Amino acid sequence: MASAAQSPVYRATTTAPVNIAVIKYWGKRDTTLNLPTNSSLSVTLSQKSLRTLTTASASADYPAEDTLTLNGKPQDIQSSKRTLACLSSLRSLRKALEDADASLPKLSAFPLRIVSENNFPTAAGLASSAAGFAALVRAVANLYQLPQSPRELSRIARQGSGSACRSLMGGYVAWRTGEQVDGSDSLAEEVAPASHWPEMRALVLVVSAEKKDVPSTEGMQTTVATSDLFATRAQTVVPERMDAIEAAIRDRDFPKFAEITMRDSNTFHATCLDSWPPIFYMNDVSRAAVRLVHDINRAVGRTVAAYTFDAGPNAVIYYEEKDSELVAGTVKAILGSSASGWEGPFYEPLAQLNTPGVALDKIDTRVLDVLKSGVSRVILTGVGEGPVTVEDHLVTEKGEAIIN
Amino acid sequence: MASAAQSPVYRATTTAPVNIAVIKYWGKRDTTLNLPTNSSLSVTLSQKSLRTLTTASASADYPAEDTLTLNGKPQDIQSSKRTLACLSSLRSLRKALEDADASLPKLSAFPLRIVSENNFPTAAGLASSAAGFAALVRAVANLYQLPQSPRELSRIARQGSGSACRSLMGGYVAWRTGEQVDGSDSLAEEVAPASHWPEMRALVLVVSAEKKDVPSTEGMQTTVATSDLFATRAQTVVPERMDAIEAAIRDRDFPKFAEITMRDSNTFHATCLDSWPPIFYMNDVSRAAVRLVHDINRAVGRTVAAYTFDAGPNAVIYYEEKDSELVAGTVKAILGSSASGWEGPFYEPLAQLNTPGVALDKIDTRVLDVLKSGVSRVILTGVGEGPVTVEDHLVTEKGEAIIN
C-alpha cells in the first residue's frame, strides 16, 4: 500500500501506573457499573519500575472492528463487555465534541487500533488490569482530545476494572464509593500528590506462583453474598479507616499509615475466609512475610514497615526511604541470591549493603526458611506519578502495530 | 509404713472425654470466671479413642498441700489459680454436706492427692485441658459424693478451662453464655445424648507440629480487644448459628450440621486474622484439608464431610458412619502409609478398604501432595459418652500414686 493513498492515522500514546490499595476494594454493589460497596485508597507505584504503555489510534482505513493487542496478543474485544463499555463511553464524549465543532475529524466514527504492553511479566502476579484499563482510557481520551479531568475519566476506567480508576492519578488516591445508583459520583480523586510524601517505598515479594484459585470478581461476589462479617467491614470499619488513613497521609505519619494498612489487609482477607465456600489468597509464605514485618518493627522498636496483600499471595511491603536499610536491607539479607529483582532505580541505597538492617536472630527462624524458599523475585519501587503522554508509539504513522 | 497405722485413703476415679466444638468458644467477657462472649456447642468424642483418667484421693495422713500429678509429672497446683478455684469450689460443696451430716468423714479438711493421665500423646495437638479439668472436677465430686448434676458441676469445670464444662456430658453439648455477672447461668447442657445421633464420626488429621504461636487464652483476649469484626460474630452470627445447629442436631440433618460447622470454623479463624497483631492458626496443610472436604462434597454431590479447626492447624473432619468409605476411605487412600493411626475401634469399616471412596482425580493434585507430606497421624473416632466412674485407680489403697 502506498502511504499517500491512505487516510490519516491519528495516534496518542500514554503510560499508566500500577496501584496497590492500602484500604482494599472488595465487593460490588453494582456489577455492571463496577460500583463498590466501600471506598478504597491506594498508592500509585512508580512507572520507573512498572508501567503499561498504550497507543490508541484511529483511521477511516482500518477494518471495521476495533482491535486491541496486549503484549503482542490480539484480544477479543467483542466478548469483553468491560472494554466495550469503556470505548463506548469515550466515543460518546468525542461525538459530543464533534457535534459541537464541525471542523473536528470524525474520529468517533473510525475504528480503533489499540496496542498495549506491560514492562513487567504477567508472572509477577501483579494486578495488571488496573494499569491496563487506565492506560486504555487515558490513551483514547488523549486521541479524542477529551477535555475531561482524570477524576471525570475515572468514571469510565472504573467500568473496565474497578481499581483502574485509581491508576489515572499519581500519589495517594481515594476511590469514593459514591451514593448515586448510576455511579456518577463513584470517582477517584487525588488525596495527595506523590510530591507530598515522595519518600514512600514499596517492596513487592513475588511468591512462587500457585494458580490463583478464585478470580477477584468472582471472589468479591461470593464474599458479598455469603460473609456474615462483610457488611461490618464495608459499612463501619472502612469508613473510619478512610478518615484515619487520609489524616495519616496528610500528616506523613508512617506508623499510623502502616497500622491501618496492615489491619485493613487482614480484615479484607478475614472476610474472604469468612466467605462460603471460603477463599484463601494468603499462603504460608504470605504468613511468613506478615511475621517478618512484625518482627522487624518489634526489633527496631517503631513501625518502619507495613504489609498488604491483594487477591493473591504476594506481599507488598511499604516503608519510608530513610528506613530502606532496616526493611529492604533485611529482606535482601534473608533472600540472598534466591530471589531476582535486586536492581533498578530504587536499588541505589541498597546496592552497597552487605549486612541486614535488622539482625537476623531477631526474626523467627521458620520465617527465614519459608521466605527464602518461597520468594522467587522482588520488585523494588516507590510512590509515583499518574499517566504520562509519550511519543514512543506502538502504532506506526501508517497504522501498523509495533510488537516488541 | 504399716498399712494398719494409716488413716483411711478415700478414692474415686473417673474418665473424661475430649470435645471438639462446632460452634467455637472464642472470647471471654470475664477472664477470672471464664465467662464467654458467646455460646458454643461441641461434640463429645468417644473415650474408646481419647480419654483422661483421673483418680482423686484424700487422706488425713497426706502432707498438707494438695498435689496433682499429670502423665507422671508433678504439677504446681499453687501457681495455677484455675486449679485452685476448682478445688476450692468443690471443697465448699463438700463442707456444706459435712455441716449438714455430722456422720460424714471430714474429707473437705483433708489434703488431696490427684493423679491423672491421658491415653493420647500431647503431641497429638488436641486440647487436653478440657478433658483434664472435666476429669479433675468429676473425680473430686465423686470422691466428695456431691449430689450436684453435671450441669451444676459445669460451673466449676468452666473456671478451670472454659471448654472443660462441655466435657462433663456426652453427645451434643451446648455451653450457654448466660447473662449473670457472677456466671451462675453460664453452664453446659446436653442438647442431645450420643444415642440420639450415634452415627457421627470424627477423623482428626494431626498436622506435623509447628509450635503454636499464640496460646488460646492470650489469643482470645487479643481478638476481643482488637478485632473490628469480633462483635458481629459474638452478638449476631453465633446466636443464629446456635439455633440452627441445634435444630440440625435434633433433625439429624448432616448437611445442615456440616455447613454451620464449617462456616463457624471459618468465621472464628477470620476474627483471629482480623486481630491485631493478626493470629494465624491454620497453615497450608489446614487449607489443603479445607479444599479436600469441599472437593469430596462436590464429587459426591452432597455434603458428606465437615471440617473444623480449633486454635491450631489440626483438622477435625466430621462425617456419618454410612459415609466412612467416602470420607475416611478417601483420606486413607491419600495418606497411605505416610500417616499413622489407622486403627482402633472405629477402623473396622475401613480395614478392608483398598480404594478411595472418591476417585483421587476429583481432588486438586496440590491438595493431595500437601496432605500427604503434612499429615503425620490420624485419629479415628466418633461421638461418645460423658465421664464414666471406673475402678482402675491411679492411687493405691495406701495412697501411693501409680505412674504408668
Automatic annotation (TrEMBL), chains A, B:
- Enzyme Commission code(s) on record: 4.1.1.33
Q: Which GO terms describe its molecular function?
A: ATP binding; diphosphomevalonate decarboxylase activity
Q: Please indicate which superkingdom the organism of origin belongs to.
A: Eukaryota
Which InterPro entries would you find in this protein's record?
GHMP_kinase_C_sf (IPR036554), Mev_decarb (IPR005935), Mev_diP_decarb (IPR029765), MVD-like_N (IPR053859), Mvd1_C (IPR041431), Ribosomal_Su5_D2-typ_SF (IPR020568), Ribsml_uS5_D2-typ_fold_subgr (IPR014721)
Example GO CC term: the record gives:
cytosol
Pathway entry: Isoprenoid biosynthesis; isopentenyl diphosphate biosynthesis via mevalonate pathway; isopentenyl diphosphate from (R)-mevalonate: step 3/3
What is the enzyme's main class?
A: lyase
Residue stretches making up the Mvd1 C-terminal domain: 202-389
Q: Which reaction does it catalyse?
A: (R)-5-diphosphomevalonate + ATP = isopentenyl diphosphate + ADP + phosphate + CO2
The record's Gene Ontology biological-process terms are: isopentenyl diphosphate biosynthetic process, mevalonate pathway; sterol biosynthetic process
Report domain Diphosphomevalonate decarboxylase-like N-terminal positions. 16-188
List UniProt keywords, sorted A-Z. Answer: ATP-binding, Lipid biosynthesis, Lipid metabolism, Lyase, Nucleotide-binding, Steroid biosynthesis, Steroid metabolism, Sterol biosynthesis, Sterol metabolism
Q: Which family does it belong to?
A: Belongs to the diphosphomevalonate decarboxylase family.
Write the protein's name.
Diphosphomevalonate decarboxylase
**Taxon lineage:** Eukaryota, Fungi, Dikarya, Ascomycota, Pezizomycotina
